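COMPLEX REQUEST
Ligand: flavin-adenine dinucleotide
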Amino acid sequence: MPTAVPIRFLLGDELCEPGGFDPHTTVLEWLRGRADRRGTKEGCAEGDCGACTVAVGERRGETVRYRAFNACILPLAALDGKQLLTVEDLAEAPRPGAALHPVQQAMVDTHGAQCGFCTPGFVMSLFTLHHRHRNEPDRPVNRSVIDRVLAGNLCRCTGYAPIVRAARRSVDAAGPDRFEQQAGRTAQRLAALERGDDARFTHDGVTWAAPRSLAALLEWLRECPDARMVAGATDVGLWVTKQLQRFETLLYVGEVEELRRVELTAPDGPLEIGAAVRYSDALDLLSAHYPGMREMLLRLGAEQVRNAGTIGGNIANGSPIGDMPPALIALGARLVLARAGAEGGIETREIDLEDFFIEYGRQDLRPGECVARVRLPLPRPDQYYSVYKISKRFVQDISALCGAFHVRLDGERVADARIAYGGMAGVPRRARAAEQALLGQVWSEDAIEHAREAMADDFEPLSDWRASSSYRMLAARNLLRRFWLESASGAPQRLVVGA
Ligand SMILES: Cc1cc2nc3c(=O)[nH]c(=O)nc-3n(C[C@H](O)[C@H](O)[C@H](O)COP(=O)(O)OP(=O)(O)OC[C@H]3O[C@@H](n4cnc5c(N)ncnc54)[C@H](O)[C@@H]3O)c2cc1C
Ligand code: FES
Ligand code: FES
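STATUS: Structure written out below.
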């Protein structure tokens, strides 16, 4: 085993090198158990309630960008090289009577707290909104943006109206706070923490490794094919906190440079998205190219989940109700998988994304392989594309059903049709019979009716607590009809809530 290279980060303004911890430790466990910071609360311990929200600062050139994360599922070791801010950091000084941060003062002034349990999480989410607004003053902060920022924070006492008022006030608060004033210096300190080598350590037989290049990641995978890869930990984190699973090696892919890139390899495509690209970092670009995907992206988890979760993690997890696979399959996405080759080289293979999902719980990922990137064709002017998500809550909820539709017309007739669903089978799957029923037909109500009927040959959906089989089938058929109605009215790629 290589020599340990321990992790270090800034906790507020202090350099912190927390040695001797199990790599499964979450930020929340460490804050409350070891760092004596109990302002951050535990509610659900599964990323749903936002009581544990903290701000994580990452260097962006000469400044720092703060984003909200759920500390309850974020591995402590993933903080390496970053700055962690908790509610204790915000006031001017850690003493009674010290001036509060503008977001704290706004919560006081608008009576935004009753029992207070959710309050530290709200304050931290509002803190990140305050900073984003200071850094991007041209992006308006309207009601839907505030709703979006607060969607991952649950309050059951106060009601949201005063908290929304606090958001408004804190955004309007004049002047930079001390974090903004110190941003240049903090960025320099973070730059000094950046490393050329991989962070790695072992505690009680459990190893954490954070390789910085794809070659190094694949070497780790060759040595430890059973290592559990971790990206945003928005799935893995729950296996640890809720199912109490333990892994011998946790292999963090979030620092692998090649997996964090989004690039257009040629002006006419394809668009390549690295497996470790987080939703928040891909949202604007994906929505610009595929506006029909935007609403689903904004409804995938909430801000804290999108700041951590990755597209590669969603695919690799293989869930039948993951939202990205149907959206990408309908676009004709290809998946690039990589593993270590001879003499330190990298071997890749490329498959259709739909072929990755073999059956429930089984994906086409060979020993030593990782998901490297997704390749997406760029949209053409003669195509219609939309994604619709059906869930019990509008945001921060897993889909009962997700339908993605892509049609290309040649004149009035359908030249190409790709329809993919999540939630209709044990894996995300195309509706091939429905597609066949559409091909060559005039894009009309008649053709849609035939395709809706043909869908009976495509799926026999299950009933579970999210939806019954008959509901799923009816909703899947109706989504196809909705897609046709919207395309016929010329608005299939509509823009949505929270734009
Ligand atoms: C509160 C909450 C709400 C959520 N809402 C939604 C939702 O609305 N829609 C939805 O689809 N999902 C949702 N999820 C699930 C989750 O956020 C997504 O599946 C997310 O994309 C997982 O990405 P991650 O980076 O966190 O993956 P991780 O949890 O880090 O990993 C997930 C799996 O992928 C593997 N893995 C990661 N990267 C690679 C790689 N490069 N190569 C091979 N294997 C890899 C891991 O080993 C693991 O098996 C939600 C989760 C939470 C906690
Ligand atoms: S404790 Fe509920 S999201 Fe973390
Ligand atoms: S003030 Fe009690 S849950 Fe929000």
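REMARKS: The pocket of FE2/S2 (inorganic) cluster (ligand 3) is lined by residues 113-119, 155-158 (CB under 6 Å). The domain at 196-256 is CATH 3.30.43.10 (Uridine Diphospho-n-acetylenolpyruvylglucosamine Reductase; domain 2).
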